[in-house]
TrEMBL record:
<keyword id="KW-0812">Transmembrane</keyword>
<dbReference type="GO" id="GO:0005886">
    <property type="term" value="C:plasma membrane"/>
</dbReference>
<keyword id="KW-1133">Transmembrane helix</keyword>
<feature type="transmembrane region" description="Helical">
    <location>
        <begin position="21"/>
        <end position="40"/>
    </location>
</feature>
<keyword id="KW-0813">Transport</keyword>
<dbReference type="InterPro" id="IPR002549">
    <property type="entry name" value="AI-2E-like"/>
</dbReference>
<keyword id="KW-0472">Membrane</keyword>
<dbReference type="GO" id="GO:0055085">
    <property type="term" value="P:transmembrane transport"/>
</dbReference>
<feature type="transmembrane region" description="Helical">
    <location>
        <begin position="52"/>
        <end position="74"/>
    </location>
</feature>
<dbReference type="Pfam" id="PF01594">
    <property type="entry name" value="AI-2E_transport"/>
</dbReference>
<feature type="transmembrane region" description="Helical">
    <location>
        <begin position="243"/>
        <end position="263"/>
    </location>
</feature>
<feature type="transmembrane region" description="Helical">
    <location>
        <begin position="175"/>
        <end position="200"/>
    </location>
</feature>
<feature type="transmembrane region" description="Helical">
    <location>
        <begin position="301"/>
        <end position="323"/>
    </location>
</feature>
<protein>
    <submittedName>
        <fullName>Transporter</fullName>
    </submittedName>
</protein>
<feature type="transmembrane region" description="Helical">
    <location>
        <begin position="86"/>
        <end position="108"/>
    </location>
</feature>
<comment type="similarity">
    <text>Belongs to the autoinducer-2 exporter (AI-2E) (TC 2.A.86) family.</text>
</comment>
<feature type="transmembrane region" description="Helical">
    <location>
        <begin position="335"/>
        <end position="360"/>
    </location>
</feature>
Length: 395
């Protein structure tokens, strides 16, 4: 009897603890967390890796953007017309350099002139806003809040002026930081074309080389995963840049029609901000609304109309045609990803958070499907089929 009891207890212990898949899974989680904790204690070992990524990352990111824009042309001409890859790449580089030189020669002088004009007219804008607010506060219905309104206005204007004169100017007064920034930009601009050239020339072999590193039994799955990641990133980059271009065009044309000042600069800001999904257009409206408020109430209404028309065309025509639902992300998920990535990595996280989430989603989905099959914990056992309608025997 005692032996049977011991065997029963032992079997329960083995069944519920030692031989439990849940327990093994939890132990693996604990080990993974312990490994992460140990890594945090020796983070100095990985410091050179972080510095290496900071140096190499920007030119690779720039080259990757142009790669996804130019590679479809290279592959199409090679497959369709048997054009040598080196010839296509050379022609695309010449075209790209020509477009950059043309854009710099046409846009930079206009943008510089508009920025200088805005800086020169800033005191006048502040004066106009003060006069407008004083005129409103002088009306009988606003007399009760006149003192508070004047105090708030003075505080806001003093705060903006103080920021512009102190913090904003200090940013550019540090010569060492300015030289370092210029040097980094030059290095990125010089090295990115070389990286882009070899990515276009040998990019097709990169996936095959990565797959060969994997064990033979995992190569098919790894090849499919890399293909899915490549398609997701390429569609996102091309779609976002296409939408951003048309946003720039629509805002610029709209501002020119209504006579908004600094139309080209504000249009470029709108196109750049549109690279941030959902909130980019609203961020781009902030400088435009401020300038319109400095100009006149009529201009403020006109800017609001341009924004409504642009959002309607973008949301109902351009984005569905260009982007579609390729990433299959819910708007709430997108906002959460933007907030989290922005808090962790700053502006770079806001820009790269969505494609990073898309890549992570693909990898996690593949690992989860593999775990479901390998663990055997999610196998559905066929249930006995019970007939629904059974004829009763006749009495």
């Amino acid at each position: 009897m005692d032996n049977k009891t011991d065997n029963s207890k032992r079997s329960i212990f083995f069944r519920w603890f030692l031989n439990s898949k849940v327990t093994v899974f939890l132990l693996n989680v604990i080990l993974a967390l312990l490994i992460i904790f140990l890594f945090t204690k020796v983070d100095f070992v990985f410091a050179p890796v972080g510095k290496f990524i900071n140096v190499v990352g920007p030119p690779i990111a720039i080259a990757a953007v142009f790669y996804y824009l130019m590679n479809p042309v290279v592959e199409w001409l090679e497959k369709k017309w048997s054009v040598p890859k080196l010839l296509t790449i050379s022609l695309l580089f010449i075209l790209l350099i020509g477009l950059i030189v043309l854009g710099i020669s046409l846009l930079i002088p206009v943008i510089q002139k508009q920025v200088q004009s805005f800086a020169a007219n800033w005191p006048g804008y502040v004066t106009n806003v003060q006069a407008w607010l004083q005129d409103i506060s002088g009306r009988p219905e606003f007399r009760s809040v006149k003192a508070q309104l004047n105090t708030s206005t003075s505080t806001i204007i003093k705060g903006v002026s103080s920021w512009f004169q102190s913090d904003f100017m200090k940013t550019f007064s540090n010569i060492g930081s300015a030289v370092g920034m210029v040097t980094a930009i030059i290095i990125n601009v010089v090295t990115a074309p070389f990286i882009l050239f070899f990515m276009l020339k040998d990019g097709g072999r990169l996936k095959a080389d990565l797959v060969n590193f994997a064990p033979v039994r995992f190569r098919v799955g790894m090849r499919n995963t890399l293909t899915e990641i490549n398609n997701s990133i390429s569609s996102y980059i091309r779609g976002q840049l296409t939408v951003a271009f048309w946003v720039f065009v629509m805002f610029t044309v709209g501002y020119l029609i209504i006579g908004q000042k600094y139309a080209l600069t504000l249009g470029l800001v709108a196109g750049a901000c549109n690279l941030i999904p959902y909130v980019g257009s609203f961020l781009a409206m902030v400088p435009s609304v401020l300038i319109a408020a400095f100009t006149s109430p009529r201009m403020l209404i006109a800017v609001a109309i341009v924004f409504i028309i642009e959002q309607t065309i973008e949301g109902r025509v351009i984005s569905p045609l260009v982007m579609g639902s390729k990433l299959e992300m819910h708007p709430v998920t997108t906002i959460i990803v933007l907030l989290t990535a922005g808090n962790l990595f700053g502006f770079l996280g806001v820009v790269l958070g969505i494609p990073g989430y898309a890549v992570l989603k693909i990898i996690v989905s593949k690992l989860w499907r593999w775990f479901k099959v390998a663990s055997g914990m999610y196998e559905e056992t066929p249930q006995a089929q019970i007939p629904v309608n059974v004829d009763k025997p006749k009495s």
